């Protein structure tokens, strides 16, 4: 944004310094209709020696664009001793322009022929035939000797035309002879909208080209500087990302093997026994005890990760938020918001080491404190209502998200990243958890929806992402 402002500012400064308005020493006039200055050519004058009639004409500007109106005027001077009669505008040759107003004859009183505070000019008495109005192309019925007559009118842009000579042909009679003469009006060009804008900016096409080249050169220099600065920033950011990636990849790799995948494996053990209980496979008491052993191991691994200073380090921050929300929901479901229950769980966890097996935990169940016995009883109740609360769907969603995020850093190793295959029950549980988390994590529902949409697509190196 800052670079764009600098480019515009420099362009305006260069334009102001090099504008043809300051460089040209020719006489200028201001055209109120078009709002710009144009070089005004000196009126051309032509005499007819035989009749001693002098003619001159001029147009108000040398160019016209779409919608613009130019004014022209013609002066007839009778230097002879006799009047000249029936002065007619026989032909008006203005390529690209169309006659829209005659400030003589029947249009003479048109308010557009005069300035706002100017009254209509009085007509020469001899010009108008008695009790009649002049025909449209008649300028004057009779111009007395030694008199001068000026008429004017307006022409409007109609089509683009190259610069060329505009002229009028006048006809008059003197005695028994009829004369005609050409009145040059000047060199005029009419052009389309693009060049009209150009003319409005530069004032003159030929002078404007070097001016505009200067401006464009300055803008290009600024753009090139901006591009080089941006490229430098990108190179710096890329190097920083590369260094960060090299450091974190090793850390994430280590965390995946030390914590993430063992946690996933343990949760899968919980899901196995919850599934056996749901389909009534095997001994129910053994299944409850098996689920309890794996729940203890899951919380022991979570505590181990926390005590080692580790946490969830995923490539996507929303994935980290989602896993934390799901695990916290599981803890509340297990009643661990109560400090006494947490203390009882801690007693169980203190007995566990890395080498502790399921058989060891089963053997320890014969020696429980009162708090541990209460926790065991409440766990049995939790297992009984776990299907009602969709606890299996929650824990299964946790394993799938952790697995997906653990594989994400190895995208270029495997050359693919498979989508998360969440079941309808898992999706419903995720939506339920994120909706409940909105109070403490505003916007988490929207972020999770966007994350799940991206994670539902399959990615293959060198191919566009596809819906899974």
Strand count: 15
Helices and strands, in order, run as HHEEEEEEEEEEEEHHHHHHHHHEHHEE
Question: Into which percentage range does the β-strand content fall?
Answer: 15-25%
Structural class: alpha+beta
The number of helical elements comes to 13
Kindly report the average pLDDT value.
84
Rough shape?
rod-shaped
Helix content: 40-55%
| Rounded Rg | 47 Å
Which blocks of ≥5 consecutive residues have pLDDT under 50?
A: 12-39
Q: What about the largest sheet? A: 5 strands, antiparallel
What topology, given as strand order, has the largest sheet?
Answer: 3-4-6-10-8
Distance between the termini: 39 Å
Number of domains: 2
Structural overview:
49% of the residues lie in helices and 21% in strands. It has 468 residues and is an alpha+beta fold. It has 2 domains: 26-197, Immunoglobulin-like (Sandwich); 241-467, no CATH class. Strand 11 (161-174) and strand 12 form a beta hairpin. It starts with a helix and ends with a strand. Mean pLDDT is 84; it is low at 12-39.
What tags apply to this protein structure?
468 residues; alpha+beta; Immunoglobulin-like; 2 domains; 5-stranded antiparallel beta sheet; 13 helices; 21% strand; rod-shaped
